[in-house]
Structure formats: C-alpha cells, structure tokens
Amino acid sequence: MIKLENIHKYFGELHVLHGVNLEVAEGEKVVIIGPSGSGKSTLIRCINLLEKPEEGSVVVDEVNLLTTPAAVAKVRQSMGMVFQQFNLYPHMTVLENLILAPIKLKGISKDEAIASGLLYLDRVGLQDKANAYPAQLSGGQQQRVAIARALNMKPKIMLFDEPTSALDPEMIQEVLDVMIALAGEGITMVVVTHEMGFARKVADRVIFMADGEIIEQNTPEEFFTNPKHNRTRQFLSRIAHAV
Question: Which is a Gene Ontology cellular component entry for this protein (predicted)?
C-alpha cells in the first residue's frame, strides 16, 4: 500500500533523511519512534508529499506520487493525517470543521456529511460537542475532533505525527484510547509517537529512527525485549520509565 524507496530529504544544507526505505502493507499498524531530530516527522510527511523528497520514490496504491503529480490530490483524499497541533478552524463549530472537506473535496452532500460527521463524533465520544467551537474544548477534545475530522473523509490510511505531544499529561490517554480503538478496525496506520505503551499495545511493527535513518525494526515484543542495535538499546534505556 505504501512504499518509500531511497528517500533523501534536505532542508538547505541539512540532510534530514538518508536514503530511507519503508514499506507498509494494507491494514498494518506501524509505529515510528526515535529521538528528536531523527527525521521521524519528516518521513511521515513525505508519505503524502507535505514534504517533497529530493531523491527517491513515494508509491501509494501503486502510484508514484513524485512522477505522477496529477494523482497527489486524489491520493491525499484517501489519507487522513493528524498533526501535533489540532489545526481546527476556530471560527467554525466542531461539526462544521468535520463536514467542510467531504463537501468541498469529495462532493458529498451536506446532509450525508453531517450524518457521517455525527457518527464519527460519537466514536470519539464528542457528539454532544457538535455545535461547540474549538476554543470551548480542552486540548484532548480538540485532538479527538481532529481525528474525527480525518475519519470523515473515509480514509484507507491514517497518518499520525506525534498527536499527543502538545497535550497536557492528563489528556493524553483519552486521545490514545481513540487511536487504540481505531487500530482494531483494520485501517492502515503509520504513527510517529513518544508513547511507548501505545507502541507495545497497537503496533504490528516498531521502527526506530536516528540521524535520518531507520536503525532497527521488529515486532513490539522483540523490539522492546531484545533490541539488536546498540543505538536502539541506548535509546530504550533512556526512556525505560515510559515502556
């Protein structure tokens, strides 16, 4: 479903990704971890070309997005993305935030968009907030709305870029609970996170990145109990309290 080959990304003189290769199968749950500055967020943003690599190929559903620019918009409609910041429109209600993209980008009727939007709000436990504005919600609630908004586009793939990093500690679990439930529904997920407990519980495969490269990848059990690479062991020893 997703295949990144020999991805190189630069920001000016800074070489952020060094020939990264990654494949994600349909329905697979991949969690990417690693220290700050390792290239995790850049890599996930390359999947939908929010960051465009200077070298390599980005193939989604057998379409190379780097050589088929006309297909990018359509492929993006099948990928939901949740960011560190919630990016909700402050002047719109929660429900208005959810229905905007399905109507504008997919041509869905307003009634259909509202009906599905209310269903997804119910799934994240916020149907009673449909007419509230983002400023009236907690950070955890806003992030759950952002997830519902992404789901209302009926994506085949969900990308999460450190979705809990901007939240207060007491709000993190409510967002993780939504993601854990989503993971049980067969959707393809790629998640950049520092939440090791989530990685152990949900991932089919854990990937460790450092210095712009994939250093190690394995099942959660093998990764956390028997890491092969010294760099991985060093990282896990530093965050052992979170595992």
Answer: plasma membrane
Closest to 179 in 3D by CA, of 191, 167, 170, 166: 191
Nearest to 91 by CA among 152, 128, 130, 135: 135
Pairwise pLDDT comparison (133 vs 77), residue with the higher score: 133
Residue 99 has pLDDT above 80, yes or no: yes
Report residue 240 as tokens. Answer: 């052992």
- Cα dihedral 122, 126, 131, 133, rounded to 10, equals -140
Which CATH superfamily does the domain covering 2-87+157-241 fall into?
P-loop containing nucleotide triphosphate hydrolases (3.40.50.300)
Contact 46, 53 (CB under 8 A): yes
Q: How far apart are CA 151 and CA 116, in angstroms?
A: 9
**What DSSP element (H or E) covers 40?**
helix 40-47
242: pLDDT confidence band, cut at 50, 70 and 90?
Answer: very low
Q: Could you tell me if 20 and 4 are in contact, meaning their C-beta atoms sit under 8 angstroms apart?
A: yes
β-strand partners of 218: 206
Summarised one tens digit per residue, pLDDT across range 34-70 is 999 999 999 999 999 999 999 999 999 999 999 998 8
d(CA 45, CA 14): 17
